[in-house]
Amino acid sequence: MRRLIVSDIHANLEALEAVLADAKGLYDEIVCCGDLVGYGASPAEIVEWARKDVSLIVRGNHDRVCAGLDDHDWFNSKAQAAVRWTVNELTEDQLAWLAALPAGPLFVDGFMLAHGSPADEDAYLMEYEEVYTLVEMLVRPICFIGHTHFQGAWTWYRDDLYALQGPVAGRSETVHQLSPQNHYLINSGSVGQPRDRDPRAAYAIWDSATRELHLRRIAYDIASAQRRILDAGLPQFLAERLATGH
Ligand SMILES: [Fe+2]
Q1: pLDDT tens across 56-100, in order?
Q2: Predicted local confidence at residue 72, as pLDDT
Q3: What is the enclosing helix (H) or strand (E) of 6?
Q4: How many domains does the chain have?
Q5: CATH of the domain at 220
Q6: From 133's CA, which of 13, 31, 46, 238 has a CA 20 to 30 Å away?
Q7: Helix, strand, or coil (residue 235)
Q8: How many CB atoms neighbour CB 118 within 10 A?
Q9: DSSP one-letter code for 168
Q10: Distance from the CA of 32 to the center of ligand 1, in angstroms?
Q11: CA of 9 to the centre of ligand 1 (A)
Q12: pLDDT in tens, 136-189
């Protein structure tokens, strides 16, 4: 089974369309680690796409807040503005669908799926110390996550932890051969608002037969996504940051 792994689309239709075009023919089903909405200007389109085409999904913190399951006091002012705008854009039916998304982790075949961490859906996993002890939580040897908007993976080997990188600027893909003996925590990166200083949309393809993990980046029409954000009256910063990937 070949799975397209996407996360943190954040209502960026231009970025999602570029990913789907780039990955065309390379996958059998789509898996999403959450944050469909928030920040970008196409939440309704992204929700409808997910309802129709995504096989497996966990909710993200922005999905939870926009669905009214949590208040947005802990968001910064720009994210709060995006929440208020997003709620107005979605129908009752779309909001109810968002509210019903499961919290991670989900367990499927040989892998698991979470938004922030298998231990806490809101945790940001960035540092060695935070990730190292999580191997205890990996009920399956592979866990896909999102939330940080940084693409990459970690693996445990002989009591140590190693990072697997995504493609550097100028390259569109890195391929990692995953060992059946090891555990992996994999962040496919953010489709719609990368923060690892590479503005290209990020995603992954996991082929469970060949055990190849493809970490991929694709350029998209950032100017169009920015225009849509500004036309919607969303904060200018949310448009600007798409160009820097930061
Ligand atoms: Fe996110």
Answers
A1: 999 999 999 999 999 888 899 999 999 999 999 999 999 999 999
A2: 81
A3: strand 2-6
A4: 1
A5: 3.60.21.10
A6: 31
A7: coil
A8: 24
A9: P
A10: 12
A11: 8
A12: 889 899 999 999 999 999 999 988 999 999 999 889 999 999 999 999 999 999
Give 98-126 pLDDT, tens digit per residue. 999 999 999 998 899 999 999 999 999 99
Residues of the domain holding 153: 2-244
Q: Report CA Rg, the chain.
A: 17
Strand partners, 107: 112
217 alpha carbon – ligand 1 mean position (Å): 17
Mark residue 35 as left, alpha or beta (left: phi above 0; alpha: psi -120 to 50; beta: remaining): left
Closest residue by Cα to residue 97 from 150, 154, 30, 47: 47
* Interval between CA 60 and ligand 1 midpoint (Å): 7
Q: What is the DSSP string of 130-162?
A: HHHGGGGG-SSSEEEE-SS---EEEEEETTEEE
What is the Å distance from ligand 1's center to 242 Cα? 13
